[in-house]
Amino acid sequence: MKQCTHVDELPHPEPAPLTETCQECEAAGTHPVQLRLCLACGHVGCCDSSQGRHATSHYKESGHAVMRTFEPGEDWRWCFVDHVLV
User: Is residue 68 part of a domain?
Assistant: First the structure.
């Protein structure tokens, strides 16, 4: 099973969300399907089921590897580099 070493590099405590929704979607007038929180900097972006795919775009631009769901009642994390739940 593939492991992720990027979790060890994350700040503790995790960063506070910079916004409550995907600012890129808001600026474009689109609606995010679900939100994701970057665990390196606190950027909030929409998921890949959303039109903008802004969480993935943030990873590609910043290199910040790990995000977590920003949906109530969910607590999973994803590593974009290793393609595994962490």
Answer: yes
What is the value of pTM for the model shown?
Answer: 0.94
Which residues does residue 78 pair with via DSSP β-bridges, in sequence order?
67, 85
Q: What pLDDT does 1 receive?
A: 64
Instruction: Give the range of the structural domain holding residue 59, as residue numbers without chain letter.
Output: 6-83
- Domain total of the chain: 1
Mean pLDDT by 10 residues, the chain (86 residues): 86 95 97 97 98 98 98 96 94
In a domain, 79, yes or no: yes
| CA distance to 21, 52, 57, 68, per residue, from 86 (Å) | 23, 24, 20, 9
Residue 1 in domain: no
Distance, CA of 74 to CA of 64 (rounded, Å): 21
| Whether 2 contacts 26, CB under 8 Å | no
